[in-house]
Specification:
The structure holds two protein chains of two kinds. By secondary structure, chain A is mostly beta strands. Helix content of chain A is 0%, strand content 48%. Chain A has strands at residues 4-7, 10-13, 19-25, 38-43, 50-54, 58-59, 67-72, 75-80, 89-95, 102-103, 107-111. By secondary structure, chain B is mainly β. The chains are: A mainly beta, B mainly beta.
């Protein structure tokens, strides 16, 4: 199985400040079709996960522009340009280039 | 609204069986693959199983292979997970989720159901 490793496991951010979460995979997530099968989800307290970013860097419908995804191969980053109170929750990266789909351990974001 | 509403779940003894259901609405169900993902309360996410649009292809995590069966009834817009030989380590919140294509591979998941708790305990 592909192992997804996120850092940090938690971060505390002042509203208006940027935040960055790293995700590293044990194998390349770049497929022969040139797509990178890396996704980012946010799970707010008491809610199911919701998709933020698909295929490395594409913001899903309705996701604010302050969220962006980048990276290549095995190293990926989710950036929030200016954190807002509603961004609180646990962020997960996920890969689907190889079954089983696997998730990172999660990064808990709290507001200072 | 695109929606997935789950039912089933509950408390079951080790070795027992349970069936989870997921009713879809607001979209053409048979245009999408579907998956089940579980989460031990307070812990991370684990993909459990996936099925393609017509049920002709399925996949399972090694941890449930041979014990769980995923199926769908497109006439009823419903997804199912039949769980047997349940173990304490199967205790989790189970989510159904819509895939992003006809298959269940190379997918992202959106939306997710509300989750249903399965507790395996004597």
């Amino acid at each position: 199985d592909i192992v997804m490793t996120q850092t940090p496991l938690s971060l505390s951010v002042t509203p208006g400040q940027p935040a960055s979460i790293s995700c590293k995979s044990s194998q390349s997530l770049l497929h022969s079709d040139k797509k990178t099968y890396l996704y980012w989800f946010l799970q707010r307290p008491g809610q199911p996960p919701q998709l933020l970013i698909y295929e490395l860097s594409n913001r899903f419908s309705g996701v604010p522009e302050r969220f962006s995804g980048s990276g290549s191969g095995t190293d990926f980053t989710l950036k929030i340009s200016r954190v807002e109170a509603e961004d609180v929750g646990v962020y997960y990266c996920m890969q689907s280039v190889q079954l089983p789909n696997t998730f990172g351990q999660g990064t808990r974001l709290e507001i200072k | 609204d695109v929606q997935l509403v789950q039912s089933g779940g509950g408390v079951v003894r080790p070795g027992g069986s349970l069936r989870l259901s997921c009713a879809a609405s607001g979209f053409t169900f048979n245009d999408f693959g579907m998956s089940w993902v579980r989460q031990v309360p307070g812990k991370g996410l684990e993909w459990v199983s996936g099925i393609n649009w017509d049920g002709g292809a399925t996949g399972y995590a090694d941890s449930v292979k041979g014990r769980f069966t995923i199926s769908r009834d497109n006439a009823k817009n419903s997804l199912y997970l039949e769980m047997s030989s349940l173990r304490a380590e199967d205790t989790a919140l189970y989510y159904c989720a819509r895939g992003s294509s006809y298959g269940y591979r190379y997918n992202w998941f959106d939306p997710w159901g509300q989750g249903t708790l399965v507790t395996v305990s004597s």
